[in-house]
Structure formats: C-alpha cells, structure tokens
User: Fold this.
Amino acid sequence: MKAIIYASNIRTGGAIGGAANLLDTLPDFYKTTHMCWAREWYVYLSDEIASEMSRLDDLRDLGVSVVQRTDAANLRTLQRRSNAWADVRLVLRGPDYVGRMAKREILGFADRSILTPVSRHQPATRRFRASARNALKRALLRRYDAYLTQTTNMSEELSARFPGKPVWVFPNSPADIFRAQDVMSRIERTPALGNGRRIIRLFYPARGYPHKNHQLIPRVVEVLRSTYNLELEVVCTLRSDELISLGLHNAPGIVPVGALSRAECYVQYRNSDGVFFPSLNETSSVTPLEGMALGLPVFASDLNFITEISGNAPYYFDPKNPGAAAAVISEYFANPYADLGRLKAGFEFVRGLPSRLETTRGHLDAMKSMSTAETTHNSRILPTIRLGRP
Assistant:
C-alpha cells in the first residue's frame, strides 16, 4: 500500500510551521502500527517547510520518499494529474490544484474565507478575482473523500455541505518552542515613552489578506492617542507589496517586518507587550494560542471562531469598532499586574491542548482508516467510516 502526505502547496503563513511540526514527528511513528500499514510512504513538501524542519534527514534515512517542490519528481507529479497511483493521500492544507494522486484523498481544511463573501475592503477588480478564485476552490472541495479540520464549528459546516463524508477534528496547538515555557517566569517589558505617551507594543503575525483586518490598526492608534494618551505600535509581518495593496504604506502604528520564521516570530512575541488579533474570519489560528503560551495578553476579535479556539483568556472586542479595541487595550495596561491570574489561565488552556505527537497520531490514524474504506465511482465514502473525532 502507498501513502502520501502532501504539503508542497504550503508556502506562506502559519501553515508552514504547522506542517513542519507534523512532519518532524513522523519518525516517531514510522515503525509503529500508525504507519506500518503502508509499505511505501511519500512526503511532498515546499522548500519553506523544509527550512523549518529539524528531522528531514531522519525521514529520508527511514526510507520515506521525500519530494521537495523544486525537485524534478514533483514536476512529473504535476504532469500526471489524472493518474491516481497511490492508495491514500492526506493534503495537509488545501484544496490543492494537483489533481487526484490517490484512490482516497483526505483534505486538511482551514480556509473559512473561501466559504464566506469576499471582503468589501478590496478594490472591485481584486474583489471579483477573489470571488472567482473562491468559487473554484469551493468546487475543488467536493473531490475529496474525507476532511480534517480544527474546530467543531467547521466540522459541522463541512458535514452539512458534504453529508456522508468523514470529518475529523484536531484542535490547533502551538509548536514546542512556545509550549516549553513557564508563564510566571516571563520578564515584563518596560514600555518606552514617546511624545509624552506610554508606547504599547503588540505583535500581529498575519499575511496581508483583507479578512485579517489590518485596516483597523491606524484607527485604534488614533483613538488611543486622542482619548487615552497612549501610543500603539503593532509589529506586523507584512511585506511591502501587501502594505501597498492594503493602502497602509506609512500608516500610523504599523511596524512592518516582513515574513518571519517560527523562531523569529518567537523573538517578536518575547519583545512585545501583547498580541493583537483583529481578524474577521478564520477557521483556526495558532496566533492567540502562541501568545497565551508565552503568558502574553491577547486582544482578539469577539467572534465565535476565535472564542472556540482560545477560550476565555483573551480580551475580546468588536473587530469593527476601533473605540472598543482601544478601550480594552487601555483598560488592561492601566493595571496589567491585576490580571496575572487570567494570563495563567490562558497558559493552562494551551497546556491542555493535544500535543503535536497526539495530533500527528490522529492524522495518521485517519489515513489508515481511509486506506481500508471502500469508495464508489464518484468517491463518496460508504457510511461505515465513523464521523467526528477519531
């Protein structure tokens, strides 16, 4: 039996770290029942993921066929779109555009934005293109035989869209570099002063997608200056082209640092007073969890998809109301030591999430389950496969 884990399409964002986490734990399972059901294993990954991994050579030494995006073998795969040569394939994030490579295919889905209307913050031309792209992705969703997602809400939505197809839920969790911390040992950063104001420095690692709501930041800065005599700097992982496309070039309060690795993000978290997360639409994000794991206050959108991910520890606000965000930030920093118990509760919340070994084991067991499932000609799964959590 041949099994594929496909991550060649993951080249940007937090999904890089998530994929590297999972792939780095595969050697721990290679000689166990979680993987020995397949005689041949293939891992397709991007160069960006490879650069974040520490055990890629271990995978090769075990006999796993590792194919990087720039390898000739990957190009040959793209040329044989209709050839389902493996038994089961797990696409870690998608949908992908390669076409069916296996008899049974599982999609790791974490892009709620393609299921919702396109943000009107975009120019009309970009909005039309995004709508067309999302329509194509929604069509591609149907071709998978099963799904993995990170929240119960998304599991229920996928089950409603594709009745009879299995959906597993594996909650998101930060990488080990974030989990191996003691929240009570965090050194408080002393905020600087500028123009007679206390400067609050928050971190927001996110690509320049419209639903990430970066446009809120300059408006929050204005309210904090005029109403609370506070200065806000939000370190953002935006590239120059993203700043321009969002109309935020030289916008007040935004400190762009470009794309960062996990280790570089960790440094930014440690040098910040907290985390800002004003997103309007996510399936799941590890950003609030990373902040909570490091004992930082997290200021986040008061929306169901975030509260399910993060619990009660973050400080929530209406993501369309800059005054509400400013008020929450100001109230916290008026007396940050008063809420140490809440920060510790956030830390404990993250510690209670599945470890990366548990998550990887769940993914592998889902693949094993699908490898023995019978399929009809149109790839619908017979109802013998259990829905929900594995």
Q: What stands out?
A: Residues 290 and 327 are 23 Å apart (CA to CA). Confidence is low (pLDDT under 50) at residues 375-390.
